[in-house]
Amino acid sequence: MDEQDRVAAFIEAHGLHAPPAYRLLDLASEVGELAKDANDSTSYGIDPGSLSVGEDELGDALFALLAFAESMDVDAGDALDTALAKYERRIESSGAPGSDVERSPDGG
């Protein structure tokens, strides 16, 4: 994945290497910042139509995810392909991509 290569090059160029556990904690923190933006912009879900998250925060979370993948020697593109294939199988077998799908008798 080109984006993962860009992140890896940035990490290398700036000496930002970190163990996978630290990368995972950073990812959780960055996703938490997205959740904070969502909570703030929607008044804790009261107005879901007003959802707003900063592009920079989304970029931080993406950087953290790709840096984590890199630290684990996982190709993010391959991981995405695996996930999409899994979701396709679930949709074909149950009609929904989730792993714990409870469906009503009418299919909804």
What features would you describe in this structure?
This protein is mainly α and 108 residues long. It contains four helices and no strands. The chain is flat, with a radius of gyration of 18 Å. 10% of the residues are buried.
Features:
disordered C terminus; 108 residues
Describe the secondary structure blueprint for this structure.
Layout lengths: L1 H13 L5 H22 L13 H17 L4 H19 L14
Helix pairs in contact: 1-3, 2-3
Low-confidence stretches: 103-108
Helix/sheet category: mainly alpha
Helix content: 55-70%
Order of helices and strands: HHHH
Envelope shape: flat
**Alpha carbon gap, first and last residue:** 36 Å
Overall pLDDT level: 92
Number of helices: 4
Rg of Cα set: 18 Å
Quick one: how many beta strands? 0
Largest sheet: none
Q: Please indicate the percent range of residues in DSSP E strands (runs of 2 or more).
A: under 5%
Offer a concise description of the structure.
The protein has helices at 2-14, 20-41, 55-71, 76-94. It is an all-alpha fold.
